[in-house]
Amino acid sequence: MAAALPSRAACLERAESSDEGFSQCAAFTDFFGRVNQEVISSMSQDYLSRVREEQPLAIRTTAPSFGRLTLNVQEVLSVSRQRLGGFVSNGLIRVTAGCNGTTLQQLFTYRCSEAHLGDAEHSGAGAEGCALGAGAAVRRRGLELTVPRPLQGPLDLGGLMHALSAWTSSAVKSLAASAAAAPPLAAVLGRLAGQAAGATALPLKLSGVDLTSFFGQEALEKELATHVGLFSLTSAVMFIGSIRGLNKHSTAQEGNIVGILATALGILSVVASPGFHGLNRFTITFLLAGTLGYSIAANVQMEEMPQLVAGFHSFVGLAAVSAGFASFFNPGAHFLTLRAIETFAGTAIGALTFTGSVVAAGKLHGTISGAPIVLENRWALNIAGALSSLALGLAFTNPAVYASSMGTACLLANTAIWGFLGTNMVLPIGGADMPVVISLLNACSGLATSAAGFMLSNQLLTITGALVASSGTLLSDIMCRGINRSMSNVLLGGFGTDGGVAVGPDGGAGGTVNEVSAMGFVDLLASAKRVVIVPGYGLAVARCQQRLAEIVLLLRQHKVHVHFAIHPVAGRLPGHMNVLLAEADVPYDIVREMEDINREMPQYDVAIVVGANDIVNPATQTDPNSPIYGMPAVEVWRCKTCIVLKRSMGTGYSGVDNPLFYLDNVRMFFGDARQSMDTVLHLLQESQERFRSLGAATPDSTGRRDQLRETREEYPVACKVVGVVRERGAGERRVSVTPGAVAKLRRMGFSVLFEAGAGLAAGFSDEEYLREGGVQVAESAVEVLKQADVILKVTAPMLDEVQVLQSSQTMVGFWNMHGVQDLMEALGQSQATFVNLSLIPRISRAQRLDALTSMANVAGYRAVIDAFSHLPRFSRSSVTACGAVPPAKVLVIGAGVAGLSAIATAHALGAKVYANDVREAAREQVESMGAEFVPVDAPGVAGEGVGGYASEMGQAFKEAQLATYARLVPDMDIVISTAMIPNREAPKLLTEEMLRSMRRGSVVVDLAAQTGGNCTSTEKDKVVVTPDGITVIGETNYPSQMPGQASEMLGNNFVALLEALGGAADFGGAHWDDQVIQQATVTREGQVLWPPTPLPADTPPLPARASPSPEAGQASGGVPPAVPAEVSRVIAWLEEHKAEIALGLGAATVLGLGLATNIPEAELTHIGYFVLSCLIGHFTVAGVTPALHTPLISVTNAISGIIVVGGMLQLSGPLLSARVACALAAVFLSSVNIVGGFAVTHRMLQMFKQDSPQ
């Protein structure tokens, strides 16, 4: 670097002083910065003269600021003489500085010059001279030092060497700064520093910090603070990279290593911090805790991973509490209101995380019952705790209270309160909801870490905690979507049982259970070409993954394609099943996600369900009244054959029976899963030759074998005839029995008498029926009506049909009982028996008979499709070059079966859906389908009627209801009305005034048109366009627009009814006394039985929830204690206005803090870091593959252990002081978390192996 030149005036004043002029005009750059003036001042005229003579010279001097300094002219390269006695000399100079036993060296090139300028020369001096006045004569001397060119080469590599040099320098200096705690280390570092500088001559830093200032304590601390900030920022960025590494299996291990390095760098940032004096305390504590954490991680079973993760979460929470108390006990801290709030909130979040995690771990381990445990007066206790905490917080922020013993009491009391709230939050949540809870506690541990960062003004903690919090929050949302429930619903608790609730004789879905033997199981596997396996929590309980993996290996060796289908919430931890399978050496590339496998499910020959129940329940898609309706499921019922391994017919966590077990293509294999797997594996190994002969079949031979099996199936001798007639109603295209149902009827001992052409309108030819066997074709309906014992019809009986029937015959139809007086008179005069499927009660065991649900499901779907076909607007939002298009707004009135189906369809089409129902119980179902529930402002009124239907409301409620619709309808594009009261005229809900208020082109679909309609402009089976351009559709038979699928669904309902009536051999008799059959029987042997006696009040037809008794804490099918009405209304209002509330709270918080406190700039920076880190964490975690969710939780759990920094910063002080004791506790707990978390993550990731080529 060239020496700085003096100004013109300065040159004139100093022209006669050669030494002063030399010292002021010369400067050079060393490895720490610019050399002080006194270095140049020590260079004498004698030095310059000897350099002129090319004589190397070593000058030793003692500079006042930094001790001994040696300037050694090592080599003179060249000397050139100039006019007037001037010269220029070039060479090498070695600068050696020594201080306190530390020696630092650097080699430079120098250029020493002396020029005499007179009148003739000064004007041409340019940059090398001084601007002098006329007639002046000056003598100018200069010295320039630069880094040798060979050392400058690497610095051209994009600044990489600069950064590396800076970090290396900081590391050496930071460790040297800890010499007070470890004197031997200082001596070693001093020797190494001297040797390194002399050996490499590497410029460690070129930042402009002068050598003198470097050795000053104040400048040293400033310099270290700069690099501490670099370490912290780098550590935070590496944590982001660590999480991103889990996006795929191939980079997951590297991501874990990056997380370890980031944690080490974060710890180093504290060790390098000025004033850190707790190295010995930290080292000993970290080693002890790390040993414990590693021991836990190395010995834990993978089945116990959920409780281990919950336990580690509790360590983070308790560490946050300890760090908060350590900060509070700091005697040198000054009171700041904002700091007090941060301490108060940080300890509260930590306490909630600690106790909630402990309870979760207890539930997962079995120490605490996995069933929901609801404390008496739970809500009152929660509200009282929140209010008490608020009062304590106000007192704690008072400076006088904060400084007294009352401050300690307030902090302790608040910690206890939030500890109780954490316990009361997790206790009511059932075991199968633990994936949501674990993810939520993961988010809480991140918040606790961020709170410690705010409290201690540490950006690393703030950023890292925000990353972990966003990770846990996103995982919680994923888990909630996996069970089709909202976060608030999960936290309300009380849902489900402990699993395995026995189903009594009347408690099942009805039907026959088909069992399979172990040898039959092996035969099915041997003849299969594609097998899918669905593991559930029972796999973890039985610990049979190793045996299952051996079976899979054996199947794959015989060229059977095997895949695993993983449900997002299977097990007790996100990704739990993936870890268990990886432990058993199952290749991760044959483990597939639910969405992928469902699309290909019909292609699999055999599906094996191991220890799963609710996640394979067809009711999730077919029964809107089920508490698990809408939950994504693995659709194993679509396979050719499904084998379910279970101990018994007990229910799953939801407490409802599983209709899957009664399907014709399902076989039950009862017994302990581990023993069952052992038996199957043993039989497979013993039957290698037979296995190969069956498994070696080509696809064509497999198809022939299936056909042979079918032809060899023996049916019982038919003893009764089922008649199927062609539907003669206008526009009716359905048929009561499809070809696929013929075999089911034959197995029950029925033959089929079929009117020619009865199935043509539905897409089924007579030849398809005849191929099934046991079918006779009649030429007319009269022939069928006279010969059949049971006649099945899609619609109501016609009067001429009724007159033909005899007393021994039974007719089963499906019709609405409103406005059928003439038909009822005819039925009463007939001696035959008439059953109406639309009257089947909506209870769990009657689900398979519920034709109303089947048809209403189709009607709701078709209503939305029909509405959008008439709507001249988009259904979804879109953004184009010409502007944005908003989504269509759809209002669904009535959230019954049809309403829920309409909601799901409209939501899938991208519309904004609103829904209303008089039953408050429908709110949860509506919201689970993605719609916004709009209540009627009539508190205290329940619209729940008998059988799960709506009841007729009072006049006051009707007026409030109409006012609500009048407010909503003008803003809607489509209104779908489904409000009906069973067997009564539909209420009028949409008036002419409401229609006139709608936009032109809007559409109204009235699904209640058959019973008069909800709209005053509805005309049955017509499409009406009002003068204002509103289309009103009054279609009454939407299922007939999908005749094939609707017929299959309805045919299954008819088959289930005949099965409930005893089949052909035991038809009728005592079965007529069954409550389900009684409700649906209209007349029998001339006696009118409708309306029937209502079902008992204690038979809940709509099992919204099933949970254990809170007192006993045991699994049962009872209903949990009801949430108080006030709480329900508050929660409903919060859910409805959550966006506005979030915006308002955010604005109020910012405004309130701005007005009440003087927020330092550093705090604002912390808030900015926190918000940005949350966003970055969200997008980073969103890319993580679901198979690695368990390692993700584990690694974020370890990352949250960076709260160790909070303890390290407070280790100074007397060892027995409260502050140091709390700090040591924080360090110990978080160190266990760090080492254990990263170690168990490494262990899990090592288990994931890719499939090797076969």
TrEMBL record:
The chain crosses the membrane at residues 224-243, 255-276, 282-301, 308-329, 341-359, 379-396, 402-422, 434-454, 1141-1160, 1166-1185, 1192-1212, 1218-1240. It is a multi-pass membrane protein. The keyword RNA-binding does not apply. Its main location: membrane. One of its GO terms (biological process) is NADPH regeneration. SUPFAM superfamilies: DHS-like NAD/FAD-binding domain, Formate/glycerate dehydrogenase catalytic domain-like, NAD(P)-binding Rossmann-fold domains. GO terms for cellular component: plasma membrane. Pfam families: AlaDh_PNT_C, AlaDh_PNT_N, PNTB, PNTB_4TM. Residues 723-859 form the Alanine dehydrogenase/pyridine nucleotide transhydrogenase N-terminal domain. Keywords: Cell inner membrane, Cell membrane, Membrane, NAD, NADP, Nucleotide-binding, Translocase, Transmembrane, Transmembrane helix. It is found in: Cell inner membrane. One of its GO terms (molecular function) is proton-translocating NAD(P)+ transhydrogenase activity. Its EC number is 7.1.1.1. The keyword Secreted does not apply. Residues 1091-1103 have a biased composition (Pro residues). Residues 1088-1121 are annotated as: Disordered. It catalyses: NAD(+) + NADPH + H(+)(in) = NADH + NADP(+) + H(+)(out). Residues 868-1034 form the Alanine dehydrogenase/pyridine nucleotide transhydrogenase NAD(H)-binding domain. CDD domains: Rubrum_tdh. It comes from the Eukaryota. This is proton-translocating NAD(P)(+) transhydrogenase.
